[in-house]
Design goal:
Two copies of one chain form a homodimer. Chain A is α/β, with parallel strands linked by helices and about 325 residues long. Chain A contains 13 helices and twelve strands. Chain A has three domains: about 45 residues, 434 Repressor (Amino-terminal Domain); about 130 residues, Rossmann fold (3-Layer(aba) Sandwich), CATH 3.40.50.2300; about 140 residues, Response regulator (Rossmann fold, 3-Layer(aba) Sandwich). Helix content of chain A is about 45%, strand content about 15%. In chain A, the strands form three sheets. Chain A has a six-stranded parallel beta sheet with strand order 2-1-3-4-5-11, sandwiched between helices. In chain A, strands 7-6-8-9 form a four-stranded parallel beta sheet, sandwiched between helices. In chain A, strands 10-12 form a two-stranded antiparallel ribbon. Chain A binds a DNA duplex (30 and 30 nucleotides) through helix 2 and helix 4.
Chain lengths: ~325, ~325
DNA sequence: TCATCTCTTTACAACGTTGTATCCAACGTT
DNA sequence: AACGTTGGATACAACGTTGTAAAGAGATGA
């Protein structure tokens, strides 16, 4: 029903291929022919058929973005920025949720070819670098977020350890002596937790503070509820902390909730710092001190890397680091 | 490079079409032939090529979801639920952001055919019902969110007016006499604002309270910053309100921020109610009374409607209403 | 035995593009 | 005058799939 090259060709009185040449900006087309064809295109409202184009050329113009969860504001913001960046290359972004489950992540990497994707942007939670390689079918991929070992694909991230150290150092700089950490995770694949914990420890050591294991509280996932529960545990300690570094803002907001409900003041009794700079933390009471990754730049770079990778697949994997900065707000006075 | 029907057929010693029949579950295939073909399929790891399939059948298995913004937690949660619901039909969801801009919304409705979409789920912010019809090229569409006039497409929503009235009635039931509203919008297309304002006024009238225009504060958009600014205006009044109904949770969280910073207590001095039941409101201090739409059901129904619409396009547009309920939390004592 | 019916399988032609090879005309070079 | 070069346009064959029509093999009924 929609018009095809054939219809345009008939109307303009040229061959199908000539129309195709005009559409694709082929150089050697006489100006008047080009004008005539363009007129016919406009008149019929011709739109190239992606399916056919892809069948022929192998490219679909669609990239996939696989994130643990859209509900988390950090990922939602990032997704929005990536969609914007992709738009500039007139790519369409197909967003997929893995819920951080290993099997879903595996399926995604292995079986994504079904949807004819030109490239994949992937923020793995459960899978380690090695597992990612084995599944890959050669689709260009850029990894997002934390990972240490040089993996099989390009990688964009901020320096998590340095950032976590910055936040912890800030707390120590306020004169706090018992600084807790919320968000530790045992799973070997939980790189985010490992790296931020390392940064926390590094800053403690620098400040000459003891590393009290009781002050490091694990979190099943990085949601508000986990932060709230972890804070309860900390308050139940014989010698509770006077500051908390939470591994992301949601944990911090949950911790904040517990503190305020228990009658503590923030930052009076306990100072709180988070990580991600999500919008919620700019409007909580008190507002939240946090680490702000340059998310816009992350999105840009990711798309750039993927574009290069789609162009030519030969080069070795690259690691790209993006800036971050500490934003101090009310929760640390 | 990946195997096609041709390769499977060669290996199994049958015709290409027979393999196609096996793949598509065609009935009249001899059991042993089917087994042999299936073996070859497994051995080669054959995956059907979507582009070719779509080129032939016209169906792509991809639906688009167009939302004003992913950054807003309500839309993010909804998007997640819709992706899940679509998965059960093994559809892929292509998420698009309109930023609530009229021209972007128009482009989307008009030019989405480019990406060969089987159907569209659309939550319009700027466009009215009539504009939506004209642009449509016949792609099945389900509208999400608020709209009054019977439009050109199926429509899933909650009863916004009733829900807003419920929230306002709750505030009145607490004995509050000066109940403000935050989130009014003048644009004729701003249906959400109009409907919720109507519900607010209805409940005021029921409770025998005067409708003081000074207590109705507009908001440019429905974000925390708008809520915070609106609350400042309310506090500057000679006779400030003792309760606020905010047209969504983000506005309410912004208002909360302003109240607490100004030294007011919530709900002591001012009670606050929101709308959407986003996760933030469950962990703010105080926690937020709100209207909870049955988002999971919205997602389910939307996908169901779209599926029927893709099946046969003849039937007249349907309106589907989804339940909501009032959740009372600390912000209203 | 022949015609008819059902089951199973197949050949062929599309779907809308684009890459390759080719062709024609006009031009400049030897 | 014969030749290569260049710009401009075209015919044809693919890409991998599925709908259509039809052919072959048995089985059923007259």
């Amino acid at each position: 029903m929609p018009p095809g090259l054939k219809d345009v060709a008939a109307l303009a009185g040229v061959s199908i291929k000539t129309v195709s040449n005009v559409v694709n900006g082929y150089l050697h087309v006489a100006p008047d022919t080009r004008a005539r064809v363009q007129g016919a295109i406009d008149q019929l409202g011709y739109k190239p058929n992606v399916a056919a184009r892809q069948l022929r050329s192998g490219r679909s113009g669609v990239i996939a973005l696989a994130l643990p969860e859209l509900q988390s504001p950090y990922f939602a913001e990032l997704a929005g920025l990536i969609v914007q960046a992709a738009e500039r290359r007139s790519w369409t972004v197909l967003i997929d949720q893995t819920d951080g489950q290993a099997d879903r992540e595996r399926n995604l990497v292995a079986g994504l070819r079904r949807h004819a994707i030109d490239g994949l942007i992937f923020s793995p939670l459960a899978l380690t670098g090695e597992e990612l390689t084995s599944g890959g079918d050669g689709t260009p991929m850029v990894l997002l977020g934390e990972r240490v070992s040089a993996g099989p694909a390009d990688h964009v991230a901020i320096d998590n350890t340095a950032a976590a150290a910055d936040a912890t150092r800030h707390l120590a700089g306020l004169g706090r002596r018992r600084i807790a950490a919320i968000g530790a995770q045992d799973r070997p694949s939980a790189m985010t937790a490992h790296l931020r914990l390392a940064g926390y420890r590094r800053a403690l050591a620098e400040a000459g503070l003891p590393d009290d294991p009781a002050l490091v509280v694990p979190a099943e996932s990085f949601h508000r509820a986990d932060g709230a529960a972890a804070m309860e545990r900390l308050l139940a300690l014989p010698d509770p902390p006077d500051a908390v570094f939470c591994f992301n803002d949601l944990l911090a907001l949950g911790a904040l909730r517990t503190l305020l409900r228990s009658g503590r003041t923030v930052p009076g009794d306990v100072a709180v710092a988070g990580f991600d700079d999500v919008e919620d933390g700019r409007f909580s009471t008190p507002t939240l001190t946090t680490i702000a990754p340059d998310a816009a730049r992350i999105a840009e770079l990711t798309i750039d890397l993927l574009a290069e990778r789609i162009g030519q697949t030969a080069e070795p994997p690259r690691e790209v680091w993006v800036q971050h900065r500490l934003i101090t707000r009310e929760s640390t006075g």
